[in-house]
Fold each of these.
Amino acid sequence: MGFSYNKLWKLLIDKNMKKVELRDKISISPNTLSRLSKNEKVNLDVLGKICKELKCNIGDIVDYIDDDAGGDSK
């Protein structure tokens, strides 16, 4: 199971905001921003803060990636 935050980065570009600006506005650690950049899991509270700051829904910033979507392992 994986996640992609590509939508978040595109949204930041549309809003002319840098990753560091977002980090500072919502008071998250550099490590959390790094995990987002690497498409790693983050706390749901972090995603909530991002949605509140950017005035969007969670589906606007993250996609679920099904690791098994490639086919069967029969």
Note: The chain has a mean pLDDT of 92.
Amino acid sequence: MTPAEDARERIAQLVVTLREFVAASGAFSAVLLLDQGEGIAPLLVECPAGGPAMLSEGEEVVALDAARLAAAPLPLPGVRALPPFDVDALRAEVVAPLGGVEHLARAVRELVEAFPGRSVLTVTFATSDPDTPLHLSARTGDPMVLSLGEETFEMDAGWPGG
């Protein structure tokens, strides 16, 4: 396999993996900033729940239909879809379901560890307030970042616990 074919296969695998994770977790979308190594610009992979995934490298943007990619996904963490989180947007609080954020955060944390280097994964979930989505962002070795609407919180190192 040539280096170009290997790179295309790896990208296809990432897109299929993100698509399957979005479906399994009930997320709106997953966005991966893929670390390609020292001196190489990162690649942006956007995978909405519906429609094609978008691959961006600099100014170049390519739509990829994950259903047509013939790649096996990476192993997915144990994750299940939850109903939209009940939130109090004024207080920037997730009210229910109890333990739901931690469940999804563990899965996002586990999945980002499958990607190389300093890659960043952000997954967006529905809440009871359409204007206040929940975003979970992870990078291997860094604390997770939780965003609720416009409010952003860097979580304690080690959160969520295993």
Note: Residues 145 and 154 are 4 Å apart (CA to CA).
Amino acid sequence: MRPAAVLWDMDGTLVDTEPYWIAREHEIVDEFGNGGWTDEHAHALVGFDLRDSARYISKHGDVHLPVDDIVNLLLDGVIARVEQCVPWRPGARELLADLAAAGIPCALVTMSWKRFTDAIVPLLPPGSFTTVVAGDDVINGKPHPEPYLVAAERLGLDASQCVAIEDSPTGVRSAHAAGCFTLAVPNAVTVPAHLGDHHLTTLDGLGAAGLSALFASCPRVPSGAR
């Protein structure tokens, strides 16, 4: 058995951009709010929908700006950093290439907005992702299952046929609720052991065959039958 598709989170999974987000949050709260932003606040936002993150920043950072303005300020700063240096996660590009060689399609499922995915995806080989589901493509962001359900639907698959790769509890909950086999590869925050179907410390050296073996080890129930 092998997965019909692999659904990738982006921030923290494909690219190690969480430090970029955290730095930008501090900048925004220092400039527009009370200057009291902490890494504890920042870690609470990892994996969440950007509008939910903006509301949290508004409340806890005392930033009195419209939600979408806060989102766009976040994106401006993170994209500027990515344009200077793209911090790829170990083994991510290699696994993407191996999946393509094996004929297993991939989708990107991220809470970052499309203008950020447009800065990342073109840096990969053409066709690395069959479809991209960005945060501004869905009504309900992670941890709601909608992003992963939309990705599976676009691929013409049941979510239970897919592997989702995530780095945060929020993302794992979203993928699991959709019915995906969920591989947790924690990065900026810890993913509790009871969340997800399997945990790894890195994607380095995994390969399509290794990922398929993990998927085959955990029988799935079609999401419609749950």
Note: The chain has two domains: 5-16+88-219, 18-84.
Amino acid sequence: MVSPTKAIVWNESQTSGYLAQLFQRTRQKRHWVDKIIVYLLTACSVLVLLPLLSILTHLVSQGISAINVDFFTKLPKPVGEHGGGMANAIVGTLILLGIAMGVGVPIGLGAGIYLSEYANHRFAMVIRFVNDVMNGIPSIVYGIFTYVVFVLPFKSFSAISGGAALGIMMIPIVTRTTEEFIRLVPNTLREAGLALGVPRWRVITDIVLQTAKGGIITGIMVALARVAGETAPLLFTAFGNRFWHSSLMEPIAALSLQIFSYAISPFDDWHRQAWAGALVLIAIVFIVNILAQYFVRRQARLLSPKK
């Protein structure tokens, strides 16, 4: 006959072994679930890269043959002739982006400063809501709006109207990124400036903006990359031009417009140049995004606490 003491010891030993087995099975299950989730996430990451890699591969294979010195220095040839380039479209794109920065950056920067520094005001909530709505408006709507406001009153397509359309599209992106990066600036910096008797506007301009300028520049570059390849707004505003422009109040060429025009043409040589133009446009966007990443990392180093 087993004594009560031995039975208790046996029961405790049996329970301990059962719990150890249960823990081992749970641990193995967690291990396999963790590996499956890691594999699924890795597959999703690869699926994200595949479209970009396939697009770049196709662009290079189709357009690299048309990339030469003439492409960057010559004007488009007349209809039916081979050769020529997109020099006017490349210069026109840079001009349009410059005008867009002149329109979108000051407005977006001011709105972002207001939203971050005066966020408790009810009017700030209205601006933030309107900004989010603007960020979701299709680009063609911006083109129609700019057509009504700029093109119809002046009775002419122009570089000014095209740049204005792109600049209006930049406003919500610059506003949001400016607000977010300014909010990352520690409040102790603001308090230190105010404690010295510095006016609030000087604190914002000389301390807050100087600290967050890397992030703000990043937001501007992201906005530029967003609008650099837009075509729909420019169809209603810049219209396009096969020659060098002589005035900002006249139609102007742009890479996206030239690509669209060449892509729908029946000429094989124009198709090759359309692919080449798309490749150059992607390269511009790629360079802008690299610069944006550089400023993001630089801003993160500046705002990270010193050890």
Note: Confidence is low (pLDDT under 50) at residues 5-10.
